[in-house]
């Protein structure tokens, strides 16, 4: 069992030198992160390879941030079975109930009372609203674990989940039923991301990025295949500000592969400045050609793509900005609600970084 | 935003970059090009002076509108040829502009600088690389539950097979050991242990029985000392001992003559039904009066020490 590590000297040094980085330490190793679109709250999921895990809600002040204002809200933390592989809040800021979704052995929806954070001392803990799994339909004792999911921003009643059993499932969360289920790949599906107009993409252990259209479920387009044979693709990020762009990560690779929908098959760019394997990638929420990546080298890099596809220099693109966390960064979030803040997770720490 | 990016591209040219193809184009456009350069300079100054992100975005929108209006006066081909003339020497000023437009002064990110380390190839993964990410796409621990479930089933099956085999062996053991009459396994084991020990003891008794036969031969001499009248009794006694040996039981009889009338008998034999009755009947048949009996049970056998007196014939 993992034990909380003592804060590393490098991390402390980095924090001391950087007054605009705010750190919150939690009892366990952290993997999943999510910004709330309607409240200054971050959700952080623990990663213990055990049945008993915990999701913590952290509050922060985006206007006048201080070290004290970035803290966990114990009353709003709750137990979660298995480590959550992804966390995401309901994408509509004006939604009446504050819903938080999590994926592990099943898709779960939690009701989080974020309306009055000042009264958290008396607030009830987030309650489990529904569990969505295929257990009954598949007539199996066990549900194949979910590796990730994505909440459709245009139609929030839709959540797409990615599973180890090679399928992508589109859920209607208002009715709690499966809208459609597709055998998306030949091997485990590692991530899923929505585009626009009912289009979604997925990455798989078979090394391919595939694009699906709910209006034409019989067909899918292989958008990219990893150059090395059978190298799994681990994560996928679709630029929500300019849907032409996607980014994906390969297993045991430090590269971030950037794809353009208008030119399938050949990457627009391969970003090669991480000194160890890349763990996370996210597009800037209010810019077309900026993205941030983080990796085992402890660095978060902000990149800018060239304006024209043919303008990539021969020696490769250099990142524009860098932040050094001092330990392997496992997670990275850059939300549209707070475009001036990036959140990262490493060891048992969550950090807020001002961009 | 796109328009702002387009206008930023003109900065390298206006700074006097030695790019010969651009000079003729600049001259040819005349007043229109002058307007472009002025707008670009204004954009640069405003970007530097901007204090917050929100203002940056608004400024970008305004510039975009102005730029769109201005762009209509210029041929598209001319714009693209200007863009193509942009070269790498201007990348530093490009990044400098980007700093002011995109990143706030309070950022905890710092400009990236290339080092020698970046030129080295990154070694391939290994177990520690992408540790949590690989576990997350592997099912985040929920997958272990499935494996654990199936291993539990296999464990139950193997345990069942093992106990079936044990039960068969216990039944075989019961059939081999005659003394086992209880059902439970612990009793079966205990009685088997006792039976094995008894068998070992029988082997020892049989081996020691050969040695005892020699003292038995001396008995007639001892009895003769007592008197000739008892010769018949002596013969009977000897016969009795031989009878015991023929039965195959590990028995042992010692006769010690103390004086004229008294003798000691030491008897060790396996307990049987009516053993005591038979023993004392044999003593009576020898015309002996029992004076005392000392009984013991060494190692589960019957042990007797008997003092007896010869019955007087008078």
Automatic annotation (TrEMBL), chain A:
<dbReference type="GO" id="GO:0009723">
    <property type="term" value="P:response to ethylene"/>
</dbReference>
<dbReference type="Pfam" id="PF00400">
    <property type="entry name" value="WD40"/>
</dbReference>
<dbReference type="GO" id="GO:0005634">
    <property type="term" value="C:nucleus"/>
</dbReference>
<dbReference type="GO" id="GO:0009733">
    <property type="term" value="P:response to auxin"/>
</dbReference>
<dbReference type="GO" id="GO:0010026">
    <property type="term" value="P:trichome differentiation"/>
</dbReference>
<keyword id="KW-0677">Repeat</keyword>
<dbReference type="GO" id="GO:0003677">
    <property type="term" value="F:DNA binding"/>
</dbReference>
<dbReference type="GO" id="GO:0005737">
    <property type="term" value="C:cytoplasm"/>
</dbReference>
<dbReference type="InterPro" id="IPR045159">
    <property type="entry name" value="DCAF7-like"/>
</dbReference>
<dbReference type="GO" id="GO:0032880">
    <property type="term" value="P:regulation of protein localization"/>
</dbReference>
<dbReference type="InterPro" id="IPR001680">
    <property type="entry name" value="WD40_rpt"/>
</dbReference>
<dbReference type="InterPro" id="IPR015943">
    <property type="entry name" value="WD40/YVTN_repeat-like_dom_sf"/>
</dbReference>
<dbReference type="InterPro" id="IPR036322">
    <property type="entry name" value="WD40_repeat_dom_sf"/>
</dbReference>
<dbReference type="InterPro" id="IPR019775">
    <property type="entry name" value="WD40_repeat_CS"/>
</dbReference>
<keyword id="KW-0853">WD repeat</keyword>
<protein>
    <submittedName>
        <fullName>Os02g0682500 protein</fullName>
    </submittedName>
</protein>
<dbReference type="GO" id="GO:0090628">
    <property type="term" value="P:plant epidermal cell fate specification"/>
</dbReference>
<feature type="repeat" description="WD">
    <location>
        <begin position="182"/>
        <end position="222"/>
    </location>
</feature>
<feature type="repeat" description="WD">
    <location>
        <begin position="271"/>
        <end position="305"/>
    </location>
</feature>
Automatic annotation (TrEMBL), chain B:
<dbReference type="InterPro" id="IPR011598">
    <property type="entry name" value="bHLH_dom"/>
</dbReference>
<keyword id="KW-0805">Transcription regulation</keyword>
<dbReference type="GO" id="GO:0046983">
    <property type="term" value="F:protein dimerization activity"/>
</dbReference>
<dbReference type="GO" id="GO:0005634">
    <property type="term" value="C:nucleus"/>
</dbReference>
<keyword id="KW-0539">Nucleus</keyword>
<dbReference type="InterPro" id="IPR054502">
    <property type="entry name" value="bHLH-TF_ACT-like_plant"/>
</dbReference>
<dbReference type="Pfam" id="PF00010">
    <property type="entry name" value="HLH"/>
</dbReference>
<dbReference type="InterPro" id="IPR036638">
    <property type="entry name" value="HLH_DNA-bd_sf"/>
</dbReference>
<feature type="domain" description="BHLH">
    <location>
        <begin position="150"/>
        <end position="199"/>
    </location>
</feature>
<keyword id="KW-0804">Transcription</keyword>
<dbReference type="Pfam" id="PF22754">
    <property type="entry name" value="bHLH-TF_ACT-like_plant"/>
</dbReference>
<comment type="similarity">
    <text>Belongs to the bHLH protein family.</text>
</comment>
<protein>
    <submittedName>
        <fullName>Os01g0576100 protein</fullName>
    </submittedName>
</protein>
